[in-house]
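Assess the record.
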Amino acid sequence: NNSGFRRGVDSPTLYMPYTTMMSRIKGSAYIESFVALIDDNISSSAAESAISQLMISRHGTDDFRIINSDSIRQTIESTTTAMTLLISSIAIISLVVGGIGVMNIMLVSVTERTNEIGVRMAVGARQSDIMQQFLIEAVLVCILGGLLGIGVAFAIGELINNVGGDSFKVIYSPTSIIAAFVCSTLIGVVFGFLPARNAA
């Protein structure tokens, strides 16, 4: 039955009998609190119930409070899930708005380049060639936008890393970067299809 306490990160850990800790250092005649560690394969609710029953049998009354870290973890996970859904909703709305913007720009481009399209078709270009040209342009516009967004994200991340120091670090996920490229390409294909078809 040893008690350990730590002062600071680099300080050594001191172990001593809990009775010595209570009487010599804290000046207390009773144990104010203790931490129970359980294995991963044991249910935290079952352990909490067993500890509660043991304490009641020893004390004869419910004069204590148990804090289960698993409930705190579940609360954090539910909050994180809600934040993820909120951010995902904002991202989807942004993608749709950006896609509509690209589509409008490409429709205006098709209208302004009617003569160019006519000349190309007059010299032998097929409808599929015209459609492919405008579809590629729409995809390139979206990919450039994705590259710009990733660059801004890296810049903000480095700014946070420089300001936050060692206490807070932004970690970059390769999966997110690849997903950004894929989303940019899909937005270009989906929202560039109508202008490309009109051009053809």
In short: The two ends are 83 Å apart (CA to CA). The first strand starts at residue 2 and ends at 5. Residues 23 and 115 are 95 Å apart (CA to CA).
